[in-house]
Amino acid sequence: MSKSASGFDLELPRSLKAERRGDIAVLFLARAQKRNAIDDPTVFGIEAFFAALPDAIKAVVLAGEGEHFCSGLDLGELTSRGIAQGIAHSRSWHRAFERIEFGKAPVVAVLHGAVVGGGLEIAAACHIRVAEASAYYALPEGSRGIFVGGGGAVRLPRLIGTARMMDMMLTGRTYGAEEGQAIGISHYLVPPGAGLAKGIELAERIAGNAPMTNFAVTHVLPRIAAADPAGGYVTEALISAIAQGDDEAKARLKAFLEKRAPKTVRN
Ligand code: 1HE
After folding, report:
1. Reported confidence tier of residue 2, pLDDT bands at 50, 70, 90
2. How many folded domains does the chain comprise?
3. How far is the CA of 71 from the centre of ligand 1 (A)?
4. Which residues, judged by CB distance below 6 Å to any ligand atom, belong to the binding site of ligand 1?
């Protein structure tokens, strides 16, 4: 472990690098020599990073160094693992990715090259996905004799549907960047090399939102979407009233009514 010299008071494993850009944090998977395969130190580092995110950080960008975003689970770790250890390992990924999905700040993933297996699982735990044209998606677990274990069985059907996920796992089907955009894996598709700048631009926009709105969108909206409609409507009424009652909302609404706030315009 080496102390990050990046403005974060946290020990990160060598496979992760963090940078601070104002109120944005950028976390890089930094194990390019292994195509950013995620080993145990990396998983624990991801969990620790998102758990210790300073309050001043309003949005995070997650990207990968080298030619690929992430080649998934470090397959070298699997050979010596028994069943009980396998369960504990999967649960450690769940904890880490839950810190991403339901953490302190929205997370924008920047995808390029291989986004496979656990790489697709971590991307699915992020809130916004930007894909460079080189990105491709696969779930090679089927061909390796294993199964997803990083929350993919829960998050990916919501993103692309159970039927598509079955196809990817049973037949080894790979989706390219344009197909991935069409089926809803990525929200934005950009030219090669343009992902990080786009990710940071989006993160800055997200960071400019009222914190209560970002909380409602990332923590409450997915729960409402997964709830029965009756519970969903009540929860929506509550969070909507809470957000409106916040001083930040009042100030923003006043600014609009006094013509000091930007209008909604087409991008
Ligand atoms: C790895 C890994 C890895 C590369 N674990 N070492 N994931 C997979 O099944 C994908 C496996 N990887 C690949 O298919 C390819 O490596 C890539 C398409 C991602 C990249 O290809 P390429 O030609 O750029 O690199 P490479 O020559 O295959 O790999 C370079 C090195 O990284 C090499 O090690 P070296 O010591 O020979 O240099 C590879 O062995 C190593 N490497 N990927 C370990 N994944 C919670 S459950 C999640 C379940 C899963 O994620 S399953 C999917 C696993």
Report:
1. very low
2. 2
3. 5
4. 34-35, 37, 67-68, 71-76, 90, 93, 114, 116-118, 140-141, 144, 146, 148-150
Q: How confident is the model at residue 171 (pLDDT cuts 50, 70, 90)?
A: very high
Q: Has residue 5 got a pLDDT over 80?
A: no
Q: Which helix (H) or strand (E) holds 175?
A: strand 175-176
46 residue type, one letter: I
The residue type found at 127 is: H
Those residues whose C-beta lies under 8 Å from the C-beta of residue 255, and which sit 6 or more positions away, are 261
In a shared domain, residues 198 and 246:
no
Beta strands 136-138 and 114-116, pairing class? parallel
Res 1: pLDDT: 44
The answer to whether the predicted template modeling score (pTM) of the entire model surpasses 0.90 is yes
Amino acid at 2: S
Residue 63 has which token pair? 């990207």
Q: Flag whether 28 is in a domain.
A: yes
State the residue range of the domain holding 40.
Answer: 3-207
